[in-house]
Amino acid sequence: MSLLEEAWEEALEGFVAHRERQVVYLNPKAAQLLGVNREKVLGRPLILALRDHRLEALALHGGERLLEVRDHLLLVRALPGRLYLLDQTEAQRRLKDLEEAAVTLAHELRTPLAGMGPLLEALTPRTRQEKEVLDLLKAEVARLARLVEGLSPIRPGPRRPVALEEVWSRLEKLLAERLKGRRVEVHLPHTLSTDPEALLQILLNLLDNALKYGQDPIRLLSRLEGDRLHLEVRDRGEALPEYEPLFLPGRRGSHLEPGQGLGLHLVRRLARALGGEAYARREGEENVFGVSLPVD
């Protein structure tokens, strides 16, 4: 047995190799996740090992999806002749625990935040500089309040027509220090009927992510595609090995290192609450992180 085969025999990730719709190899972890006897499926049709037409379609056509397969939640990635299976069942259990803890945290933070607003309103600035600082503090307290609400089950607020340029002007103020010295190109000509606060949080998280991990120029743009409006943040950072796992809690950075990253996870939750979806991919020389939202 070669060193490579020995490594796959011990791997915690399932691996299936196939050629011309026949199983060439599958490791013990893949056999466990798929619930098959590998001696009985080696050299047999691929569908006998996978026993799921969704998995077979991915294996044959490529792509990446999160699928529930025989009591396991699997992150499946397919490349020509290769299928990788990563068990996300335990991660989803931890996610549920995390969301329950987040709801508790949100409950505890609401009271002090609610008291800070009136205290700031009671202050009377004496100079223009003091007024600017007070306005910034009010905006930050309001943003913290929105973040706290974002920790709870997502419930979009009232919708109204929102000019995206209006959202950008708010983003500029919130990220003023972070934007200094950075090259950010903005093209947001559209208006969307949506919850403006949820939309602000989506774009804030996407842009913050690009400022942390991306490379200039960073492009913030909107484009209409059928009945969906796509809002995207594009940057010239290095190509990432995987994109879909970045939307899971605890994934951050350019190498998917473990962490406390919740930004993209919250983006997806907000996008889905608004009837849309979040996505990430590589296009040409750019990393693209965006959401598609219904126009109506």
Automatic annotation (TrEMBL):
UniProt xrefs under CDD domains: HisKA
PROSITE patterns, sorted: HIS_KIN, PAS
Transmembrane annotation, as ranges: none
GO terms for MF: protein histidine kinase activity
Catalyzed chemical reaction(s): ATP + protein L-histidine = ADP + protein N-phospho-L-histidine
Classification via SMART domains: HATPase_c
Enzyme Commission number(s): 2.7.13.3
Ranges for domain Histidine kinase: 104-296
Name of the protein in question: histidine kinase
Organism (species): Thermus aquaticus (strain ATCC BAA-2747 / Y51MC23)
